[in-house]
Each structure stands twice: as structure tokens, then as C-alpha cells.
Amino acid sequence: MISVNEFKTGLTIEVEGGLYNVLDFQHVKPGKGAAFVRSKLKNLRNGNVVEKTFRAGENVVRAHVENRAVQYLYNSGADYTFMDNETYDQFELNKSQLEWEINFLIENMTVNISSYQGEIIGINIPNSVDLKVIEAEPGIKGSTATGATKAAKLETGFSVQVPLFINEGDVLSIDTREGKYISRA
Known about the structure:
Elements: E1 2-3, E2 12-15, E3 18-28, E4 36-43, E5 49-55, E6 59-62, E7 66-76, E8 79-84, E9 90-94, E10 110-116, E11 119-124, E12 128-136, E13 149-154, E14 159-163, E15 171-175, E16 180-184
Antiparallel strand pairs: 1-6, 2-3, 2-6, 3-4, 4-5, 7-8, 7-10, 8-9, 10-11, 12-13, 12-15, 13-14, 15-16
């Protein structure tokens, strides 16, 4: 158990049977009435963000989420197969569990998987990955004065806006948090 007065950003808690990550919190001491903690919580099972208010001093269950390294092997239709790096056990996750992450997954990539009491709640990919450009429009010469960009399709099928000098076959560093071009790799 942990008091809501000890909330920190990134803390994982269990409230009313749901598993939440604390995104933001604010201690409020009104002039009249009891103090309370206003918080913004992200549901780790479905991704919804909710705002919840707790009385000051109220206790909640602190959830201990395990993270372990796994390797992405391949996908077959809507199922993505991973292998635990320590036990070599293979398991599958459905496409619906990896909506954003599949844009950056390439075969044999090592990622961290988060689990709570044996239930897999998500994967954590690196903040940046290197991906190859498989399709890019040719740049128009002379239109670089305004920092123009063009669309480029990456090996995972994800499209990103890149500078005009990027060509097919180039390997790019992509920010996985926002899905934006960083630089050539």
C-alpha cells in the first residue's frame, strides 16, 4: 500500500481492479474543506486516460510491474511472436495489443515486455530505432528554402515526413514516441 501523498509521475498503482500509471498529479489544499490529490491516470490494459480525485492520506495498492527483455521474431497475420531472452519461451501478442509499436518493430529486435501478475500489459520499444526507406518521392530541386519535407515509407510500412535529400535505401533514425524523423543513421 502507498499513500496518495507519495504519488510520483510514472508510478504504477491498482485502483478498483484497474491497473494505472500516474501521468500527472496535483496536491490541492482548498481554503475550506479537506485536502485532496487530483491525478491523471493511464489505464495500462486499454490505454484510456482518466482523471481521478483521492482524499489526502488515502491508500492505494502499489503494483509491481516486471520488465524483461524479449526478442521480436516474426508476425503471422494479426499475431506477433516474441521469445523470452532468458528462458527461450515463445509467446504471441495480438495486433490490438501493439497498435503503435508495430510501426517500429523489425525482426530480431530486442524490446522490453511489461507484465503484472503473469499478465502481459504491453511492450516498451527503444526511444529511437533505425529503419530503412523503401519508398520515397524524388526531391524537387530548388525548393529547399522553406525546409520542405516529403513522405517516405519505411520497411515496417510506416510513413514519415523527411527532408528532401532522403532517398530510397537510406537508413533513418526515427523517434518512436512521436513517429518523427531524427536523422540519417
